[in-house]
Write a structure and sequence with these properties.
alpha+beta; five-stranded antiparallel beta sheet; 24% strand; 129 residues
Length: 129
């Protein structure tokens, strides 16, 4: 093989492997973000929060430079916890998101512990749900 053939073959092999590399990189990045979300939940709410099942929000649903993971509080409930990082501003937030089907608005409140979470949920009569 001459240099041109070797270069073209190398490039074709690289291009063929790129989707797999991209998928592996995405999975690794997502898993790392889940570790941060779990750590934030544990630091904010304590060891019981480690049981939350986090879901990664696709990038095309978020502003540029923002990563987000969400975790339902309980099956069948509309409110959820959100861990959001804005890499552009080096800021993060741990919040309770409460969508309202009746009015279409979404309330978002910072959560800094179980007391704050309980206070927010009590506003909506969460125990009766």
């Amino acid at each position: 093989m001459n240099i041109i053939e070797t270069a073209l073959t190398s490039f074709e092999e690289y291009e063929a492997a790129e989707p797999k590399r991209a998928a592996e990189e995405y999975e690794s990045s997502r898993d790392e973000f889940f570790r941060y979300a779990r750590a934030e939940a544990k630091a904010t709410l304590g060891p019981g929060a480690e049981q939350l099942d986090w879901k990664y929000t696709p990038a095309d649903q978020l502003p540029e430079s923002v990563e987000e993971a969400t975790a339902q509080l309980a099956p069948g409930r509309s409110e959820y916890l959100r861990y959001r990082v804005d890499h552009g501003t080096d800021s993060s937030a741990f919040e309770l998101v409460r969508p309202c089907d009746a009015c279409g608005c979404t309330r978002i409140d910072a959560v800094d512990g179980y007391v704050a979470l309980g206070r927010i949920l009590a506003q909506d009569g969460a125990r009766s749900s």
